[in-house]
Specification:
The chain has 248 residues and is α+β, with helices and mostly antiparallel strands. Helices cover 32% and strands 41% of the residues. It contains seven helices and twelve strands.
Length: 248
Amino acid sequence: MRVARALILLLLMALPAQAERVVAGLSQARVSITTDFSGSEILVFGAVKREAPAPEGPDLNVVVTVAGPSEPTTVRRKDRRAGIWVNADMQDIGPAPTFYSVATSAPLTEILSPETDRKHRISIRRAIRGVGVTDNNYIDALIRIRQDEGLYQINDSAVTLQQDTLFRAGIALPANLTEGAYATRIFLLRGGDVIDRYDTVIVVRKVGLERALYNLAYDQPLIYGILSLAIAIIAGWAASAVFRYFQP
């Protein structure tokens, strides 16, 4: 037993220390959605920790990804028939991130190898698994739609990397966020390969009146519907009264 332990210790001592490691943090790890929430920006910052001088060879690059909760997604294609736009075909995409942002220190296609992308699912296309999808046009359409909504973002060269040591990047979060945990990953890359990775989470939650209305809608849908109808009736009556008051 002692001999075995000694051999294990010798093997561990013989293993090379990891040359470069990423140490990172967030300006805020929690985002509160209120009734007047119009979006937010998270600052991702960090440094590259080294036990020895930086190795020679390919340039060091940093990639930051932020992924919102995944939800089952269906994409429908519309056709014009008899002068009317109608739903024609549909494709179940499967779980897809409700939000996905990629920020890089250089163009992603230049610093990320296809093999590494398949393994770590860094690009937007790889983040959408699309299991069983036979027509990739539907996935492309989903990406276009969510890019137009600000929910899918590719920010090439948005990560500032100073002297291959300090880095920072701002991630813009739109107003139309889904509640949940937003998985945040920071990758160090050299020669298209990941040499280290840091994972953390941003929590997005509704608070205040927004939370109360959300809970009421899901926990007491009947009461929520009655209140919504009452508010609509009162608002309509008030608008009509104001109109009659100012009418000559």
